[in-house]
Specification:
The chain has 400 residues and is mainly beta. It has helices at 2-21, 143-154, and strands at 35-39, 44-46, 54-60, 66-70, 75-77, 83-92, 98-107, 119-124, 162-163, 170-174, 179-180, 188-191, 195-196, 209-211, 215-220, 234-236, 247-255, 267-271, 276-279, 298-305, 310-312, 320-323, 342-343, 348-349, 360-361, 363-368, 383-384, 386-389. The protein has 2 domains: 35-107, Immunoglobulin-like; 119-392, no CATH class. Strand 3 and strand 4 form a beta hairpin.
Length: 400
């Protein structure tokens, strides 16, 4: 018994000395699993807990070829198709470099996605001639009531116009899945009520003149995965974004009006350029133009301001033509001109105009992009009726 106890004690002492003498080995909690299973069009955010001086995510194709897909610490994966995907993460660190491989299996969703709007998160129009009419405000309606009416108008297969009012007024919506950024393709479409004029007093001007009330599009990815649009926003830079006439970080404030005011001096506004003006009331719409469910006495908006696109081609105020911009705006070209009313997530830029890569997005915001009034036509206001993810098949086109 004594000899056995001695041997055990000797072994324990040797083990203790070995552990004490060996270099300290850090315990690394990478925070990333080896394998994942996700449904298509659902975002997966991989965040390594182990910090380093540089990160590199590499993808492998079916033939084993490698390509670097990100050098950010976090890697966002989102696929529009089913399949098996393999990635390698390399973390550079002087003391503890690290390499880890991840395999992701993408399955088809259990319940088929809808290509149309599933939820309206925000509806905040600026004053305008169709505000309180599209959708209709009824006495006592709250913000929640109007939000529900906006969702009932443009959600699902519904196709009922809502108005965003004058410059800055906006709506925010999302789908029942993430919209995937598919390289080289349009990702979603937004329907408005733009049209080209059948006639123009000035035949030398472009044929794309008519009724174009361009709305600017912004997108956001639900990075914190909380299901609400409180993450950074990025503008989809359309054809006018970098033109010298376009103003960025523009601000405007509309004051609640005295409904007894004269028509031409109806709703007063001031802007960041030091200018003052009015949203006039016309003879065709006599209801209040100020959103009646809003309690604030001043409505503030900020964003990119496009140059005015309306021209009085008659010279006497009787015939205004609103010319379409080339591409990248809502309610800008007729819906049947598919490439002019569709949008590519690859156009996303940050607040400084730098390109941003978003693998997918969860929220879309549209706001009126011009600040102009056109005589008897009234103010220019973006309208929209529905939106569609172009990577999701419509239900009637699917195999039964």
């Amino acid at each position: 018994m004594k000899k056995t106890a001695y041997r055990v004690a000797s072994w324990c002492l040797t083990a203790m000395l070995f552990v004490a003498c060996r270099p300290e080995i850090p315990l690394v909690n990478l925070g990333i699993d080896d394998t994942y299973v996700v449904a298509r069009m659902q975002a997966l955010v991989l965040h390594p807990e182990f910090s380093g001086s540089r990160y590199m995510w590499t993808a492998f194709d079916s033939a084993g070829n490698e390509s670097v897909v990100s050098e950010e610490r976090d890697f966002v994966f989102c696929s529009a198709t089913q399949g098996e995907f393999r990635f390698r993460l390399q973390i550079e660190d002087k003391e503890n470099p690290y390499t880890h491989e991840v395999r992701i299996t993408v399955w088809e969703e259990e319940v088929a996605y809808s290509p149309y709007i599933a939820r309206v998160y925000e509806y905040r129009p600026a004053p305008g001639q169709f505000v309180n009419l599209m959708p209709v405000y009824e006495n006592g309606d709250t913000y929640a009531d109007m939000l529900k009416k906006a969702e009932e108008s443009i959600g699902g297969t519904n196709d009922v116009m809502i108005s965003l009012g004058a410059y800055g007024g906006y709506v925010t919506f999302g789908f029942d899945h993430s919209v995937v950024n598919v390289p080289g393709q349009y990702d979603f479409k937004i329907y408005g009520n733009a049209f080209y004029a059948a006639e123009n007093p000035n035949p030398d001007n472009p044929d794309s003149g008519g009724s174009s009330e361009p709305g600017i599009v912004m997108v956001s990815f639900d990075r914190n995965q909380n299901g609400i649009p409180d993450d950074p926003w990025y503008e989809l830079a359309g054809s006018e974004y970098r033109k010298p006439q376009t103003k960025h970080h523009y601000r405007i404030a509309y004051e609640r009006p005295d409904e007894r005011n004269a028509d031409t001096a109806y709703i007063r506004f001031t802007d960041s350029e030091g200018k003052t003006g009015y949203v006039p009331r016309n003879a065709y719409h006599r209801q209040s133009y100020y959103p009646q469910w809003v309690g604030e006495s001043v409505l503030n908006f900020e964003g990119t301001l496009l140059a005015n696109n309306a021209v009085d081609e008659s010279g006497n105020g009787s015939y205004y033509v609103l010319y379409a911009y080339d591409w990248g705006y809502v309610d800008n070209h007729p819906n049947e001109v598919a490439d002019k009313s569709s949008f590519n997530i690859e156009w996303a830029v940050d607040e400084n105009g730098n390109s941003v890569h978003l693998p997918c997005i969860d929220f879309v915001r549209v706001y009126t992009g011009v600040s102009q009034s056109c005589g008897w036509l009234g103010e220019t206001s973006t309208e929209l009726s529905k939106a569609e993810d172009l990577h999701v098949e419509k239900q009637d086109n699917r195999k039964q």
